[in-house]
Amino acid sequence: MTDFHFYTPSEIVFGRSSEEQLPIVLSKYGARKVLVHYGGGSAERSGLLPKIRTLLSGSGIPFCELGGVVPNPRLSLVREGIALCRREGIDFILAVGGGSVIDSSKAIGYGVPYEGDVWDFFDAKAVAVKALPVGVVLTIPASGSEMSDSTVITNDALGLKRGCNNDICRPKFAIMNPERTFTLPAYQTACGVTDILMHTMERYFSKTHMDITDAIAEALLRTVMDAGPKVIADPENYDLRASIMWAGSLSHNGLTGCGGVSDFGTHRLEHELSTLYGVAHGAGLAAIWCFWAEYVKSEDPSRFESFSKNVLGGKEPISAMRDFFHSIGMPASIPELIGRKATEDEIELMSLRCSRGGSFRVGNFKELGKKEMQDIYNLANQ
Length: 382
Ligand code: NZQ
Ligand code: ZN
What we know:
With 382 residues, the protein is an alpha/beta fold. The protein has two domains: 11-180, Rossmann fold; 185-380, Dehydroquinate synthase-like - alpha domain (Dehydroquinate synthase-like, alpha domain), CATH 1.20.1090.10. The chain has helices spanning 22-28, 42-45, 48-58, 75-88, 99-111, 119-122, 186-204, 211-233, 238-251, 265-277, 281-296, 301-311, 317-327, 334-338, 344-354, 370-380, and strands spanning 11-14, 34-38, 63-66, 92-97, 134-138, 150-155, 160-165, 173-176.
């Protein structure tokens, strides 16, 4: 096993009507003026945002609002948010939504106290030492951003999607009411289930490991693979929604990777798909994973054997995962994802961007440079 550092400071308030505790946790973390940041309308339609406005007004907590975050959140709105926070004297950001809203909030949080351009943090030109605190009311279990140290932003001017990891962006709290996820369409539920599985699988496929971490990871994977198809057929099942929601946070707060070395090659390859084609992150992961696995499995076949035995009831892992993705309505190749084959130029562009012009390698189970990235995209393009 590898030495590790496990840090997971986010407070979790979980359960029915948990959003009613919002004023208490905001006060606990010293919020004096709040930016309520949200997406394209689902939280308004579900009644969550009206409820949050009432709770904040009723508790005398001043706030202003910025909506309009899109999936694969954009730097242009982050810049608007930074200017708004400075103008209004905001000292706390409340993300109401999923990974896109949370990441946009984290990026605004980085930008407000920084004198330079916030993209510097995503372009590895600077490391943030200060950030406005962020709290979350989660509406879609998927990204795990509510407990993670990660922020993923798309620079819409440059066509680049980049992540930035830093413990200071971990949310102060996350309020999670599984009932708030009943309105998720089947496709978004399936994208979330895929992303949750992948956050654990990116850690599980490691050449060093620890028995307790493996056991936690395998239990999480089995639970989510069992609950995913069931909740798509029964979207208002509270217990299934709750299991998936909690799994989403545990999958990406570091717990399922202690003692191993994370890979995240599939994630890196996927970020280029969602940048180029605007697809949902979870669907992009499903389109890549089986081909990544095919390409790297000879590195350590015993890992695939454990995955098969302890998660998939002995089935061959790659075809079992392909069948699972199909069973929840996910694509399992690039043509299934975008409705056509990617062109040679597009594969070249994605490999160039992913390898930062050929200078950057991703993954650990097997390191991938530009040529290996191109090979995997080509395999996934059949
Ligand atoms: O915008 P609205 O109208 O709210 O609709 C959203 C959006 O269209 C909808 N939705 C959310 N909650 C809903 C709902 N619809 C009905 N009922 C609800 N309760 O779902 C759509 C997708 O939302 P989004 O936030 O984009 O999804 P997700 O949580 O999957 O986030 C994806 C983003 O997170 C990044 C991805 O790259 C992508 O940009 N990631 C962030 C990570 C992190 N910070 O740790 C790790 C991940 O690996 C990932 O890369
Ligand atoms: Zn992900």
